[in-house]
Amino acid sequence: MSDQHEVVDLPPTPGERLRNAMKARDVRITMIFGVVITAFFVFIGLWFYPKFMPEIMSESMKRGKDVIVYFTVISAPIAGLVIAIALYTLFDRHHGDTPPEEAASFRTHTPIVFVWTLVSAIFCIVAIVWGLTEMNVNSEDATANAKTALVVEVTGSQWVWTFNYPELGVQSEQLNLPVDRPVEFRVHSVDVNHSFWPVQLGVKVDANDRVTTLAHTTPNVLGTIDIKCAELCGLYHAYMETQGKVMKEADFNSWVTAQGGHVA
Amino acid sequence: MTTLDHAKVSESRPNPPKSLITKLNMGTGMIVGIVFAEVMYFWGKSMWDRQEAVMENRILTLSMFAWCIGFLIGIGAFIGPFRWLIGKDLTDEEQLFLAGKGQGVSRYFRYCTDHKVVGIQYLVGVMVMLGAGGTMAMMIRTNLITPGSKWVNAEIYNSLVGLHGITMIVALIIVSTGPFGNFILPIMIGARDMAFPRLNALSWWLLFTAIPVLCSAWFFGGIPTGWTAYAPLSVQAGGGMNAFIVTIIIFAISSAIAGANITTTVVTMRAKGMKWNRVPIFVIGATISVAMAIPAFPSFMASQMMAAFDRTIGTHFYDAEFGGSGWLYAHLFWIMGHPEVYVILIPGVAILMEIAPVFARSPLFSYTTAVVGLAGIVGLSFLVWAHHMYISGWLPSLNGPFMVTTEMISIPTGLLFLVLLGTIWRGRPWMKLPMLGVYALLWNFLIGGITGIYLSDVPADDYLHGSMFVTAHFHYTLMGAALTGAIAGLAYWFPKMTGRMLDERSGYISFWLVQIGFQVLFLGMFAAGSQGQPRRVADYEQAFATSDLISTIGAYLVGIGMIVLLYSVVHSWRKGKIAPMNPWGAKTLEWTVPYPIYLENFHEAPVVTSDPYGYGRSEK
Ligand code: HEM
Ligand SMILES: [Cu+2]
Ligand SMILES: [Cu+2]
Q1: Using CB atoms and an 8 Å cut-off, which of residues 177-206 of chain B contact chain A?
Q2: Phi, psi of B183 (to 5 degrees)
Q3: A113 and B366: CB-CB below 8 Å?
C-alpha cells in the first residue's frame, strides 16, 4: 500500500498528472475522509452555534451569528483536508525503537504550493469581502436610522450601568427599549474602561472615560436582554450586569410615563 | 555545596584564580539584592510620606528595581563591564571560570556564560513558571466549577487571573527560545558558543530577578487587571501593579539582550558551508521569533514606563481627566501584543517542522514555503494590532482595514500547514512522543486559526469580543500550538540536554491526558463564550453552568497530565535510560556531538555540505 504511488509514472501534461494522482489509492481514501470530515464540520457550524447562542433579537446579532455559522461552513473543507491527510498518514504508522524505513523523498511540488496558496487566498478574499459587506450594511443602517433613532446614554461606572433617555427625561438602571425602533447607544464611563454588551442585541462597545462611543442596533423581537460588562473593570466586574426588556411601543410609553418622563 | 565544589576546583587546578568572581553566586546575589531593596525601601520611607498611593508606589517600584540591580551586582554581572570601564578585561582564568569549566552542578547557580548552562537554567525556570501558572489556572477553574461557588473571593480571583495570564505569557515567550534557543541552537549551527556569552548569562539572570518580583505581587494586593493591564484600571490598582510593571520592564530588557544575542549568533557564527538555505528550520523560526521581539517589546516597555510614571510621580499619560488616554495604552500594548503572540507561536511550530521530517523520514516539504510563510506572518503581524480594539471605539472607520490585514494572516499561516502536511504525506510516521506533537498541533492550530478568523471579522467580534470565546481561541493557539511544540521539543532534545531518554510510558500518558483534557476544557469554553459568558469573571449565571463544569473537568485532566509530565521529566533526568548519541537518526549537527557535550561543543569545526533534510529513499 505504501508503495502505491511508486508505480504511478507521471506523464507530462498537468491534466493527466492530476487524473493519475487522483487514481492513487491514498489520494482517494484521503478524499473520502476529507468529505466526511467536511460534512462533520458543516454540521457543527449549522448546529452548534445556533444552539449555543442566545436568542437573536436584532439584525446586528443575526449578522454576527451568520458570520460565525457560514465561516465555519466555508472553512469546513480546509479542516476536512488537513485532518484527512493527517489521519491517513496515521494508517501507516511505525512503532518501535528504530526509525522506520526511508519514505518517498519529494522536497517540493510547485503546482501544489501554487494551488494551495491560490485557494487559501480565495478563501481569504471571500472572508474579507463578506466581513466588509456585513460591516457596511451595519453602518448604512446606522446612518439611515440616525434621525429616527432613540438615543440612550449609557454610563458605566464601577460596577453599575445607568441608562439615560435624554429625549424622554428618564433615567434608569434598567434598559427598556421599544421594539422595531432603532436605538443609538451613546456610551461612556466615569472611571475605568468598561464594555457595554447587551448580549442578545449583538452589539458591543467600550465605555471610556470622558469619551463617547456609539453603537447602533434595532431590537426586533420582544423579550429580555442580558446586559453585561465585557471588559475587566476591577473588583466586581463579574457582577456588573443588569437586564433589559424589549417591549411593545405602548408598554414602553407607559413605562416612560411611570418613570416621570414625557413621551415624545 | 558551593564550597565543596569550590574545593574540588582548587584541587584540580594549580593556580586557582583568586578573583572575586569565584566567590559570587546566586546566594551572594540574593543577599546583595535584598540589602539593596531594604536600603531603598527605608530610605524612600524616610524621604516620602507613605500615606499617599503615589509615594507608596514610588517606594515599592524603586525597591523592586533596587533588588534587581543589587542581585546582578551580587552575582557578579557587572565585573566584566567594570573592568572594561577601567580599561582592562577579565583574565583568561576568569573567563574560563565564567564558562563554568570543571565546576559541576554549582555552575548552574552562578553567572555562567556557557550557553548549555544557560539553556538548562531557562528550562528549569520555565518549568517553575509553568508550574506556578498552571496551579493558578487550576484555582481559577475550581472557582468556576459551579455558579456562585465563591471558593475564592472576587479580589483573589482577579489577582489569580492577572498573575496566571502574565506568568504564562512570559513563560511561553521563552519556553522554546530560552531552553532550546540557547542550548541546542548554537550546536545546530555548528558554533562553539553564542556570540555574546556574557550577555547570554545576563539575559537569564535578569529574567531570574523578575521572578521574585512578580511573585511579590501577591503580597501587595495582586494584579487585578488581567495580563493586558489596561489603563486607567492599572493606574488605579494597588501595590501589586508595581510588580507587574517592574517585571515587564526587566523582561523587555532581558529579551532584547537575548534577541540581539541569538540573532547575531545565527547571522555570524554558522558553520562553514551553512548557507541560508541550509539552516535548520528551527533556527530560522527561533531567530525570527527573537528578532520580532526586538522591535515589539520596547513598545510594551514604554507602555509600562508610562504607567509607572502615572502611578509614581503623578503624570497623566492615561488619565482622560487631564488629557491622557486609555486608548494610548491599548495601542502601545497591542503594537507589542500581536507580534508577541507570534513570538510565542513561531518557535513552537518551527520545532515541529524540525521534528516532522525526522519522524516521517521524508524531507521537509518545501523549505522555501516554510520560510516564506514565517516571513509573511512576521510582516503582517505588525499591521494588525487594532483587531484587539475593534469595539474600543477609537476609530471605527479603521476597523475595515485592520480586518483585511488580519484575515490576510491566514494565507502565510496556511503555508505552515502545507509544509507540515507535505512532510508527513506518504511518510511512515514514527509514533514517538515528539511526532505526536505534530498531529496535536495540526488539530489544535486548525481550531485556533479558524476561530481567529471569526474574531477578525468585525460583526462577529461585536458579539464575541471580551467573551470566553476569545479565551478559548488564544488558548488553542498558545497552549495547543506553541506549548505543544515546546513539549515535543523537550521530548525530542531531552537526550541531548540530559543524556537520557524521556520516559516513554509516562510521556504518552501525559500527552493523552493533556491533549484530551485540553479539548474538553476549551471546547467547553467555546460553548460558554458563544452563549455569552464574558471572560475574566469570578462568577456567572446558571445558563453557563454546564459549559463551565465541562471546562473545569477538562482543566483537571490537563492538570493531572502536566503532573505526570513533570514526574516524567524529573524521573527521566535522574534515572532515565541512557541515550545514544543520535536516538532519532536525525541529520542536524546537534546529534553529531556526544553527551556530555564538550565545553566548546565541537573538537573539530563541522563543515556543512547540504541542508539537514536529506531523508527519503533516493537521497543519501
Ligand atoms: C489566523 C490567525 C489568527 C487570527 C486571524 C487571530 C485573530 C484574533 C483576533 C481578531 C483577536 C481579538 C479578539 C478580541 O479580543 O475580540 C485575537 C485575540 C487573541 N489571539 Fe488571535 N488570531 C490568530 C492567531 C493567533 C495566534 C497564533 C496566537 C498565539 C499564539 C493568538 C493569540 C491571541 C491572543 C493571546 C488573543 C487575546 C488577547 C487578549 O485579549 O487577552 N492568535 N486573535
Ligand atoms: Cu467590567
Ligand atoms: Cu492579535
Answers
A1: none
A2: -75, -50
A3: yes
